[in-house]
Amino acid sequence: MNVDVDVGLHPVQVVGAGPRTVTVRRAPGVNAEAVSKEPTHVAKSLERAGFDYILIEDTSMVEDSYKNSAETSLRRGFMAPKNDPLPRVPLMTQQTKHIGIIPTVSTIQYPPFLATRAFTTLDHLTEGRVGMNVVTSVTDRVAQNFGYERHLEHDERYEMAMEWIDVVKALQNSWEEGAVIADPYSGVYADHTKVNPIEYVGKFFKCRGPLNTIPGPQREVPVCSAGSSEPGRVLAANYDDTQIAIVKDAADAKAYRADIRARAAAAGRNPDHIKVLFIATPTIAATDAEAQAAYDAAQAFRKTDKAIEYNLWNMSYTSGGRIDFGAIDPDTRVGDIDLSKQNGEYTSIAGLFGGREDETLREVVASSFQVKDMGLVGSPPTIADKMGDIMEEAGGDGFLFYLPTTRMNLAMISDGLAPELRRRGLIREEYTGSTLRENLRAF
Prior knowledge:
The chain is α/β, with parallel strands linked by helices. The protein has 15 helices and 16 strands. The chain has helices at 39-49, 71-76, 88-94, 112-125, 140-144, 154-172, 230-239, 250-266, 288-301, 305-318, 346-353, 361-365, 380-394, 407-423, 436-440; strands at residues 3-8, 21-24, 30-35, 53-56, 100-106, 132-135, 180-183, 188-190, 200-201, 206-207, 223-225, 242-246, 275-280, 283-284, 377-378, 398-402. Strands 1, 2, 3, 4, 5, 6, 11, 12, 13 and 16 form a ten-stranded mixed beta sheet that branches. Helix 1 packs across helix 3 and helix 13 (380-394) packs across helix 14 (407-423).
């Protein structure tokens, strides 16, 4: 399996505060979303395990839709404060040799030219180990930080994102192969006939070009996304090098991956060039009994006031800030809540509430969570076997593990689980590519 990691930039780690991620892919894949003060330690640990990349999530706002206040966000340290992810990238690659780093870039926050220049520069600085996690952002608060009155509607956001990627790719290719001559004897740096304006005019963006930065080692920086809605799948099939998705079980994973691959083939792409990683929340311990005890304790915790507060807060955010679940009587029947007001993560909201219309909000919030465990509970050998079985059925590329990146968890994955996966031939023995794209496609 491939191995990837997603590192959040919260300064503190709070149990239940948007669990962090580690991923494992079937040819070589493990992805981890993490909260850590020590990103270089995370990078070195996960490179030792054979991970493909670290995905740095990001959100540019202080969330205040829950109870119409930022009090809970700031008291609990939910999504704030956060540092900008881009400056972390060269810091992390300086301490490693192979692992890729994928920071998040929002299409509503970064004009395409600015994003292309920044990521091309990072491509040079990392020697081809950077990717871009393209997001549309979710809430009005993000939009208002960047000059909008309200955020665009869900489907229009994806239309904008696909146009954004088109502009980025055009800029990345505005310098043709052979444009750079760099001949000190003739005094010619570049052939001006091979550096061309793109003259892009679209619905959302207008850009003349060309880029004033020469192409990086990968030329086109690999694209990652996480949208599972209809437009999210269209974006992934047309542009992604890797996608992360939430599914219930192996059968669901198989159907999802087959859909993305069919869409990619219809778009004229090689389906093997998209690595689909499935998010899961594993519980790993030294023995199966210890893991089961930890899992049972976590399930019990989810029914506590502290955990329920987080889930209500997260549901409010996930709705795009359009539904304040903190203002709804918890004994309200779900079928009586107008979920159509949302403008956020449509697939996530459907996954949280779908088929539970006759239950109360209190019942749903204590038992329904965005990310599933997919049955991954046990010791490293047990989980390795389960992962192999799931991928055998799904035919997939791997997992995204969503869990706190404490030193204990890093050690359990890097030095416990990874060797068991490697022993079964499920993850790489060594890195064979020199760039992120090459390592993603290695097997």
